[in-house]
UniProtKB/TrEMBL annotation:
Coiled coil: none annotated. This is Ferredoxin 3 fused to putative domain. Residues 85-135 are annotated as: Disordered. Residues 125-135 have a biased composition (Polar residues). Residues 5-34, 35-64 form the 4Fe-4S ferredoxin-type domain. InterPro entries: 4Fe4S_Fe-S-bd, Corrinoid_activation_enz.
Length: 260
């Protein structure tokens, strides 16, 4: 035992959002019974990168006797966790008939699409009558919660949508169909976090194309800038289409933003 800085979590303030789990690069924090907990003191480096991600102020740094930081063990732990998560996700993706909400968002989930659709597909084809089942094929969809190495990103078409578009766009299911969905808010989300996560996804996977769906309001325009910066950081030239959901629900293709 050595006296050093280590993360302290006030469970009475923790709302179970999991942001600190994502921010912890060493895997020292996990969700246990809906609360964030330091599961292994030797994995915590005490630098506090997770503190700024907590929306409730539940995380602080305290100096006390604790196990020494073991960087090698932390790296091995993360590698084992990723391998186990990917294997479980692939097994679940093969199981037919599995549906329903998934919580908490700990592992990437892939739900094979089984809807019977008419001819024509993708954004812009809005004349087909949609089936009763959900078009969503993967989970989680929030950019910050997305798993970079999730198997469903392999050779995928991405839909990157502003949060509000799902509620304003009457044909949202046609945008979702046959695409892996990621959502975010260009006004409320931290730009660097958004860009870094998307750049990691693009770097780690062969992405076929990207469609961006935003609202017509000025503050939502920034989402296309975030996507373009992530593409530039990844060094990849991926076909990019840009769609705008008007306040009245009409969807238009901003041809000035289309890249082939």
């Amino acid at each position: 035992m050595v006296k050093r800085n280590i993360i302290k979590i006030d469970e009475s303030l923790c709302n179970g959002c999991g942001s600190c789990v994502i921010a912890c690069s060493e895997g020292a924090i996990e969700m246990v019974d809906g609360k964030a907990r330091v599961v292994r003191e030797s994995f915590c480096d005490g630098l506090g990168a997770c503190i700024g991600e907590c929306p409730t102020g539940a995380l602080t740094i305290e100096r006390r006797d604790a196990e020494a930081f073991d960087e090698k063990a932390a790296v091995e732990h993360l590698q084992q966790s990723k391998a186990a998560g990917s294997a479980l996700a692939e097994n679940r993706a093969k199981q037919e008939g599995e549906s329903g909400p998934v919580a908490p968002c700990v592992l990437p989930i892939h739900q094979p699409q089984r809807s019977s659709m008419g001819a024509g597909e993708g954004p812009g084809q809005h004349s087909n009558k949609l089936g009763p089942s959900s078009q969503l094929s993967s989970w989680p969809i929030q950019m910050r919660l997305a798993h970079t190495d999730a198997p469903y990103f392999k050779d995928a078409s991405l839909l990157i949508a502003a949060d509000c578009s799902a509620f304003a766009c009457p044909v949202i299911s046609e945008f979702i169909r046959k695409r892996v969905v990621l959502i975010g808010c260009p006004k409320l989300d931290q730009s660097e976090t958004f860009i870094s996560k998307l750049a990691e996804i693009l770097n780690s996977n062969e992405i076929r194309d990207i469609a961006v769906l935003r609202m017509e309001v000025p503050c939502c325009y920034h989402i296309i800038n975030l996507v373009e910066q992530a593409m530039k950081r990844s060094g990849k030239n991926i076909p990019l289409d840009h769609f705008i959901c008007m306040i009245d629900g009409k969807v238009v293709n901003d041809t000035g933003m289309v890249r082939r």
